[in-house]
């Protein structure tokens, strides 16, 4: 009997990794989605660069938004 491996889309893989980043365990993801924990570890290695870039971009955006809020507060102080 020929055993075929499952094929997952990049979007599905990223969804699983985002859930993992949000605090889900590999075991819970395995139970819910049927993806082996070894496969999830493989995806972590495969997409590490993409995930790092995404979170670095989010951190930069958060810093910019914080600076914008501080600037707006300072502008309000000057007006009053």
Automatic annotation (TrEMBL):
Keywords: Coiled coil. InterPro entries: Homeodomain-like_sf (IPR009057), Transposase_8 (IPR002514), WH-like_DNA-bd_sf (IPR036388). GO terms for molecular function: DNA binding; transposase activity. GO terms for biological process: DNA transposition. Residues 26-77 form a coiled coil. It comes from the Bacteria. Gene3D superfamilies: Winged helix-like DNA-binding domain superfamily/Winged helix DNA-binding domain. This is Transposase.
């Amino acid at each position: 009997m020929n055993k075929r491996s499952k094929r997952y889309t990049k979007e599905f893989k990223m969804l699983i990794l985002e859930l993992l980043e949000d605090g889900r365990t590999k075991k819970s993801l395995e139970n819910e989605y049927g993806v082996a924990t070894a496969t999830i570890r493989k995806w972590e290695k495969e997409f590490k660069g993409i995930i790092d870039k995404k979170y670095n971009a989010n951190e930069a955006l958060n810093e910019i938004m914080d600076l914008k809020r501080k600037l707006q507060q300072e502008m309000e102080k000057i007006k009053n």
